[in-house]
Write a structure and sequence with these properties.
Helices cover about 30% and strands about 25% of the residues. It is of the alpha+beta class. It has two domains: about 1-60, Nucleic acid-binding proteins (OB fold (Dihydrolipoamide Acetyltransferase, E2P)), CATH 2.40.50.140; about 70-125, no CATH class. A five-stranded antiparallel beta sheet has the order 3-2-1-4-5, with no helix packed on it. Helix 1 (about 70-80) packs antiparallel against helix 4 (about 110-125). It is elongated, with a radius of gyration of 19 Å.
Length: about 140
């Protein structure tokens, strides 16, 4: 079945997969990949009577992605609060958002131009995907 990792705890090496409205717990021993599982990963898993037997990541082409984030909200955040990088953080690009905030601080406010330009690019459709590769609404 296809599911979504809702949480994964590195300390206990356990996680929770959500499929439709049901939740299934798994352990790292059931994980079938070299890379570690991460919250937000889409997975293919097998279970019997609610007990997970095998979990593997799935490629993006196996499921249909639906837009989650709003282009209008992201664009307006960029135009109005772009200096703080909030539009990038809203789209899931935390590193770029923090970099925009740092640049604005270091340059004494001139980083606002970067955020404003980003906001305009989002509103005009030149930036059209979030950090997970989903199109914006």
């Amino acid at each position: 079945m296809l599911g979504h990792i809702e949480s994964f705890d590195q300390k206990t090496q356990t996680g929770v997969i959500k499929h439709q409205e049901a939740f299934y717990e798994f352990h790292i021993d059931q994980w079938n990949s070299e890379s570690a599982p991460k919250t937000g990963d889409d997975v293919d898993f097998d279970h019997e009577d609610g007990v997970v037997s095998e979990v593997a990541p799935v490629a993006a082409y196996l499921y249909e992605t639906k837009p989650v984030k709003s282009r209008i909200i992201a664009g307006l955040l960029g135009v109005v609060l772009g200096a703080a990088g909030l539009h990038r953080m809203y789209l899931g690009f935390w590193g770029i958002g923090i970099a925009q905030l740092a640049i604005t601080y270091v340059t004494g406010g001139f980083g606002v131009v970067w955020g404003f330009v980003d906001g305009v690019l989002i509103l005009t459709g030149h930036i059209y995907k979030d950090a997970k590769g989903r199109h914006l609404k």
